[in-house]
Specification:
This protein is mostly beta strands and 271 residues long. Helices cover 8% and strands 35% of the residues. The strands form three sheets. It has a seven-stranded antiparallel sheet. A five-stranded mixed sheet has the order 1-3-6-5-16. The protein is globular and about 55 Å long. The relative contact order is 0.23.
Amino acid sequence: MNGRCYLLTLGCGIVIGLGSSCGKPQSAGRADFAEPQAPPRAVLATAAPVAAIPPEPPAFTWPAEGGTTMEVAEAVMVTVELDFGPPIPSIAEALQAVDRRYQPDDGAGRTFAILDAYGEPTATGKLHISMHVSTEKPGRGALVLRRTGAVLWQARIIPATLPKHPVFTGKNLDMMIADEHGNEHWLNGAGVSESILDAAVRDRGVLLREFWPEGAERQLTFFYSACGCPVKVLCRRTGNRTQRTKELPVIFPDDPDVVAVIHRLLGWSKS
């Protein structure tokens, strides 16, 4: 059974299905692209900080009740409207204003991670933001707005009833590319260290540089999570590099080592 996805809405991109499975497709014979370091305990997005956000989070007391119960390797989309006042921050900046709180049962590491996030300003001057959360280990987890202490989401995370996916080690990054018809193909990253274009399209027997036409926009899908959920972006090939054609979603804000690997392989600017 695959990990389940839920939708949580509060008022304050290698498809994620609402109320359906979001595990990654089977991929016998594929090879992973990288072995990034194990995820850090708590790392926020790397964009420039918003001036109004305090540099240190306030003291946090776990609520005695409330929240939801989720199993390890499940996912939830946490959607909120946040009032920062003018100027309205970007999604990457807003992620820095949301503290990740962990209380693992074994006393070590994190209990969840944000996989991606997107959103936009509202007509009332607030920021509508959706954060895709994947549970990783038993314990408690919460998302807390730093400057007010408001709890945006909290959960008690319990062991999975049935194994949904291989144990998440934080070392395997998998990728797929969609062709011009939307059909997705696994990429074989064996021996690839510098350019995604040197990867093989596994079921076609050709290198990606032969499969992906110059100037064409394609959807890339990344898998790096306990829930096996996909993270999708749109890119255009430009010579030996690629460029994102849309700024959002912000991907893997809690895993900068993985983001660095993706930037290197795709040839994205670090700005």
